Amino acid sequence: MKPLALYQIILVGIGFYFIIDRVMKFHRKQVSQSPIKLVVIVGIWVTIIVSVLFPQFLSNLLSKLGLHETTQTLFFAAIIVIFLMLLRFLSIIEQLERNITTLVRSEALSRFEYQLKRKKTKKK
Amino acid sequence: MRSVYIVIPVYNEEPVIEKTVREIRKAGYRNIVIVDDCSTDNSLDKIKNLNVYYLSHSINRGKGAALKTGIEAAKILHAKVIITIDGDGQHNPKDIKNLLTKLKTHDVVLGVRVKQRKRMPLLRRFANTLANLITWFSYGVMVSDSQCGLRAYSKKSFDLIDTKQNTYEFDSEIIREIAKHKLHYAEVPIEVRYTAYSLHKPARQKFTNALTTYYKLLLDESI
């Protein structure tokens, strides 16, 4: 096996960092973590690490998929990255929407409870 | 009847909300909780004069969010049974009786719009079928009408069910929660009145809604 280039070491390091971080988060049972999320994130990083460590493997795989031309490969990779980013943004937006709803609901219920208390006080 | 609470989500239902409440009262239900989801017409002013429990969202959040707010309010009022019903008057409150009868032996009772199925616009029927299939595919629960707004919940079920969806995905999310908590559910045929008013409202059961529902419920898993 050839000695690793600097970019490979850096990317593999980053990959392992994110995998360990995700597994630890899941292990600590953080509220936002789910098994599906763990599998997807770890799967993506494992794919990146394998691609970086064994570029020939990726090249062979892309050849089999008919994506052997470099430009095509870059284009394909860019689409995947954009797709993943889009999913991430949608996920963040959805989470923000839910947070807004929680605030709006909490405000509505507080006013409701206040009204109820006032009604009870008036009756007394 | 005293511990039965009717929850109605309302968004721009000014022309019909008064009639809807009147019909519910006529059917014998006094505890009515209305959630105004930041209507842009005078719905809220009308609701304030109806002598019902009411809440209002300061920002429009969608039907699902309004329903959850209403359910939370009913819990504060110590409800033992919660009925959800649409605010546009398309449901007949007389059907609530049948739902309550079934609820004696089940945790959740779902209304099924079968009586006038032939009158349901074709696109809505198609979207509804697609939503039912998606629900079945996703949660293994095959219901006849996953998008019907008339439903009854026992205390056990509304204490367990936890929804997060803001809009019409809420209805499918309930099915997911039924499957998740292994709740006993039943389906009861109900009447739907497709009036010119309800048909002219923006269609809730569009083909794209069914796909959005699936995508959002999938996204729900990844958040």
Question: Can you lay out the helices and strands and say which pair or pack?
Answer:
The complex is a heterodimer of chains A (124) and B (223).
Chain A: H1 6-27, H2 35-53, H3 55-64, H4 70-123
Helix pairs in contact in A: 1-2, 2-3
Chain B: E1 4-10, H1 17-26, E2 32-36, H2 43-48, E3 53-56, H3 63-76, E4 81-84, H4 96-103, E5 108-112, H5 122-139, E6 151-154, H6 155-160, H7 169-180, E7 185-189, H8 196-200, H9 207-222
Parallel strand pairs in B: 1-2, 1-4, 2-3, 5-7
Antiparallel strand pairs in B: 4-6, 5-6
Structural write-up:
The complex is a heterodimer of chains A (124) and B (223). By secondary structure, chain A is mainly α. Chain A has four helices and no strands. Chain A has helices spanning 6-27, 35-53, 55-64, 70-123. In chain A, helix 1 packs antiparallel against helix 2. Chain A is elongated, with a radius of gyration of 24 Å. Chain B is an alpha/beta fold and 223 residues long. Chain B has helices at 17-26, 43-48, 63-76, 96-103, 122-139, 155-160, 169-180, 196-200, 207-222; strands at 4-10, 32-36, 53-56, 81-84, 108-112, 151-154, 185-189. Chain B has a seven-stranded mixed β-sheet with strand order 3-2-1-4-6-5-7, sandwiched between helices. The longest helix of chain B is centred in the middle third of the chain and has 18 residues, at 122-139. Chain B is globular, with a radius of gyration of 16 Å. At the A-B interface, helix 2 and helix 4 of A face strand 3, helix 3 and helix 9 of B.
